Fold:
Amino acid sequence: MFNPPNTVLFVSAGLLGPKKRDHALARRQLYLNYGALTLATALSHSGHPARLIHGGHDDPADFLERLTREGMLPCRGPLMLSLPSFYALGWTKEFCRRFRSAYPDVHIVAGGRWVTGPDPEWLRRHVPELNEICTGLGEADIGRLAGARLVYPPAALPGFALDHRLVDGFQQYQPSIEASRGCGMGCAFCEERDVPLTRLREAADLTRMIGDVSSQYGHGEIRPYLQSSYFLPNVRWAGRMREEMSSRGLRVHWRCETRVDSIKPATIAHLAAAGLKVIDLGLETASPRQIAAMNKSVDVDRYLRSASDLLRACERHGVWVKCNVLLYAGETASTVQETQAWLDQHATAIKGVSVGPVIVFGPPRQAAPLLEDLGLRGARPVDSASAERSGVSAMHLSNEIGAGEAEALSLQLSRRYMDAGDYFDLKGFSYYPRGFTRAAFDADVAASDPSQLPFRQEQISLRH
Ligand code: SF4
Structure:
């Protein structure tokens, strides 16, 4: 790869191991760091060459050697290192230690606001090689940090489509298009709980960006993720998107994420016609007590009724639903049973589930309030030193359900609703490298420890 000498290099920190369970399939997953790509695109559009390369699951030493071998290092300006989650801390420490010894004069600027924002001093203690820590979104600072003049002033949402061609190996990655930011719905466990929701991007604007991204990929098949923590179109907006997609002749399937209680069934009809194929729904639980504990909704009946209506609408319109389920503080066999019974009733509308126990993210200063709240509900950290050590605190959920039982329940519930084909369809839609085949998937399954896989391999189904 050729890089002009003044290229600003962004590195998205990788992982020493997969976030959940370690098996061959988990290591296939690609996560596009669209926050870092937003900054790289802003620079590039302003006439400053930029590149983004992902650490992925590469060993930090091998990754550094590759950057050097391929001429990306040494870079002239600072290295922009983005930490997408606390899980990237171990990789970051190792990479920065090696980087500093190889390039003592190159500054490292760390970004990734969920990790850098809560307690920069904690991060600096863990990664003393960092020269600067950028705690906010980065869009206001990137011009100064890169020594560049931006022609795109910071806005609530960038006015340009991300330029995926700036990503090393971009053809492997499914693209992202940011539709809105923030949420503010107050769920106790969520980092977005107090971040206000921005206006949804105009349908015409979003559709134009889908077209732009499609041409970046030479009009080959793409499945963009419309990035929003809380995708909230109304029926008029959805109708406009349907018209825009049709009038531009765009036949692109896409994916989004939202709550279960906000989008109306009539909106789903338009969205499906506009290309919506997969929707990630934050159901979290169907237990009234747990809905209240999470502060998910004050009206449990309405919450579950709306969820039911939404799932049925998705089923009618051929939209695959992936339900996120969160095992929470105070969970018991009976609350899990309530959730399972609800999921069973909707099994025909569910393509897959993602189940896991609540995890508290952040260094002690950030983690303390949530740890306290969870503690009042009967949970406790598996290791009280882990917030300081890693910024990730796994939890025993209650006296009845410890961390080990929570993991077993997560696998059991996942397998109840998902077989290998469902899992392949959902992961293949967004997270596996583009063009990843079912044969390659099956080979990975064969090479994996079956006890770690979150889907069943036989074809028994609840969908009758
Ligand atoms: S609705 Fe989703 S994004 Fe919003 S606060 Fe709740 S969990 Fe977070």
The chain has 17 helices and 14 strands. The chain has two domains: 8-146, 174-358+397-452.
